Amino acid sequence: MFTKQEIYEYLWDEPYFRDDNTIMVHISNLRDKIEGEPNTPKILTIRGLGYMMDEGC
Fold it and tell me: Which of 1, 5, 22, 32 could lock 52 by a disulfide, CB 3.0 to 4.6 Å apart?
């Protein structure tokens, strides 16, 4: 599992600003590209914590 802050700082090498919507937009775009069926997501949102990939990926 990765937090929004970890993802942002790893990819952009800049401090993360809590109100930044960048990660949510990019996660949404990734989901559109890699998930064929919305009922079986490959990228899981762990509310209040971050994101993780489904074990079957």
Answer: 1
Q: Are 54 and 41 in contact (CB under 8 A)?
A: yes
Q: Pairing state of beta strands 50-53 and 43-46?
A: antiparallel
Structural domain of 29: 4-53
HEC readout, the chain? CECHHHHHHHHHCCCCCCCCCHHHHHHHHHHHHHCCCCCCCCEEEECCCEEEECCCC
Structure tokens at 7: 């993802």
Q: Is the pTM of this model over 0.85?
A: no
Instruction: Please give the average per-residue pLDDT across 29-41, as a whole number.
Output: 90
Domains of the chain: total: 1
* pLDDT digit string, tens, across residues 1-32: 999 999 999 999 999 987 778 899 999 999 99
